[in-house]
Amino acid sequence: MKISVNGAAAMIGRKLVRASCGHGIRVHIEHELSNRPPERT
To answer: How many Å apart are CA 37 and CA 39, to the nearest integer?
Structure first.
């Protein structure tokens, strides 16, 4: 039984969006940005 990578990614993405309701994504993005050194692009 073979599951496509895109299909699995879409399923995981939908679950993450549903669980976070948008708020978790915003916090995650802010966390990622704050962890990145400003001199690196």
So the answer is: 6
Do 18 and 26 meet the contact criterion of CB atoms below 8 Å apart? no
> Could you tell me where the DSSP H helices lie in the chain?
5-20, 23-35
Angle at 20 between CA 17 and CA 23, to 5 degrees: 115
Q: Which tokens go with 34?
A: 């704050």
Q: pTM surpassing 0.85?
A: no
> Residue with structure tokens 């001199």?
39
pLDDT in tens, the chain (41 residues): 466 777 777 787 777 666 655 566 677 777 777 776 666 55
